[in-house]
Amino acid sequence: MSEPPHRRRAHARGSDLERYAGLFAARTRVMRSSAMRDLMAVTARPEVISLAGGLPDTSTFPPQTFAAQMTRIARESAAEALQYGPTEGFRETVDCIVEVMGAEGMLPDPEDVIVTTGGQQAIDLLCKTLIDPGDAVICEAPTYPGAIPVFCSYQADTIQVECDDEGMRIEELEAVLDALDGEGRRPKFVYSVPTFQNPAGVTMSLERRLRLVELARAREMLVVEDNPYGLLRFGGEPLPPLYQLDGGDFVLYIGTFSKILSPGIRLGWMVAPPPVMDKVVLGKQASDLCTSTLTQYFVREYFAAGRWREYVENVAGIYRSRRDAMLDALGRHFPAAATWTEPRGGLFVWATLPPYIDTSDLLAKALREDVAFVPGQAAYVDARGRASMRLNFSAGGEEEIREGIRRIGKVIAEQVELYGALTGERAAVPDPRPAEDAPNVVPFKKAEGE
Amino acid sequence: MKVAVLKGGRSLERGVSLRSAARVEDALGRLGHEPLPLEAEGDLVKRLASERPDVAFVAMHGIGGEDGTVQELLEILDVPFTGPSVAACVRCIDKSLSKHELRAAGVPTPDWFAFNETAFRELGAADALVGLERRLGFPLVVKPSRGGSALGVKFAETRDDVPAALISAFSYDSRVLLERYVSGRELAVSVLGEEPLPVVEAIPLSGHGYDFEARYEIGRTSFVCPAELTEAEEGAVRETALAAYETLGCSGFSRVDLILGEDGPRVLEVNAIPGLTDTSLLPQAAEASGISFEQLVERILDLALAPAGA
Predict the structure, then answer these.
(1) Nearest Cβ partner of B163 from A24, A35, A422?
(2) A439 vs A62: CA distance, rounded Å
(3) Superfamily per CATH, domain A37-54+310-423
(4) In this complex, do A355 and B284 lie within 8 Å of one another by their Cβ atoms?
């Protein structure tokens, strides 16, 4: 036999699932598979241009810096770096975190910070700490696709509030809160990515930030601000984070080194007031005892060199050019009836097609052209978002982005034309625009005066 | 015995194929065979020619693996393979073709019309939609003609839903079916050799039964095997399934999906190579008749190696 016996046994454990089916917890029934798992298996083919991932471009990190820092850790602190660490994280890591948050105008008390295994663990720990089955959680529509499986696995009742180009609609949020209030319910928290949102690429306006914080205080409601992208700004003036506006009483904050340094080091953090933090620490102890000591040492070394902001600015510049390439290509290749967001930072553009196109099905067609994106439904718990798609511009080069958008545009044009033939409507196929034309950028959804 | 396990491919059911294949490879190992995992890619023919397996286990689904393509190659290379012949695969993968064959043979299948994309793009077929909607009634089911899974299958509740449903279906194939919706119980009968296995009933936990995710995810659909049927119902269902299997020329194994409505069973489609994953129906049906997964794999191999016509 070609495989050693232990390998085969591992295999058997995974595959003979039905033997264990009776043992699964009730919560596994509501764990959604990432919507398009089988379709996504096809996107892994090397010839596919994937605009589907959310990967920062780690090839921009200088290997010699990486090598020098790891060598230093090995020489000077091997035993410590290979040891367990405190559950809350090292004080030195927290100092780096305070520095990063300071760059966006925040001044957290180091005592309120816990180092987590990526921002994703922070979301998980918060749910673990706050959610009983059936509890209401409110988030944006669309929301971060990676948050949905977390909310589902804790059996939260997830309610999504529409976004427009100024972020979450606070009026609608208030209506949802009133409705819950009428049922005698109180949401456990409002989850928001207010800056350069994943997946929509939109940023919450200052006015709405102020109202959201005001609302949190008035209703004594927790708001979870997830801010992985705030420092990846392509221009303009930064808006104050919710945490800064609130001062940390009702706004809990989640941050990460993933987009400003590396997702592979799995280092994120959460800032929460002491009563919440006590429970979160207990939860983390149960989950993984502590976050990787080795990568915390790496971050400490990296920050000591004092050039982290330079790197972030460099990366932001690269992403800005890629965003420009994507917006330009969208203007050239997407039909007039499509709209898309124009992000001022972050990693994603959110495009919305005519309502008769289901982007999950479109993905099947796109994959035949060797290009992939994330269908919009991945960002919703309900049936919304079917005509939208998330497009990533951080992972690939500009030529790849242009070619990817061209291919997607081609399959959309075929759908639009076919719809015309089916309904007798004149097909609105995009005219190839001359290069000097400004891209036809239509905003996501115009915010109405509130 | 050296058994090539063909898997992967470019089909949208690649993920299912990889899971089926992993399970088959594992069972082959436990049976004392020598599994040879082979991804269906550029060097497939070269590898088959150099490795000279005794038999090929085709664990592929959808276009490329279930439509006769790899089967044709295996015939040329003179490698015996599991599951239906080239001709049966060709008939099964195309629902429009298989429904014609079934109807001609008197096997009940819901009324339908099939269209090519060209008919709409160039021949103004949209003008025929109204008449055909009247004949099929609402709701109606719109599905791509080829493809084994429920990808691209949509319900149109009203006429307004039809264009979008067609657009979705045409994303998967250039030919689509509009089919009369038959309400009833969703059943699947796997046939092994010439023997129908116990009937599986799929009970969707919410909404319409057609949901690609629900098919492969534990907990979204509950499966009952053997289905609770009267003796008469069970007889009719198994007989209809076997008739469909034989009409399309299947051999080895296949799975027949039916709806049991007021007017008795109606065949929706025949899957030439049904999934063999943890949540797939054929292994469940086999287990219900006392056949373990290893025994199932061994039996499928025996059928592949049996002399033709036996």
Answers:
(1) A422
(2) 34
(3) Aspartate Aminotransferase, domain 1 (3.90.1150.10)
(4) no
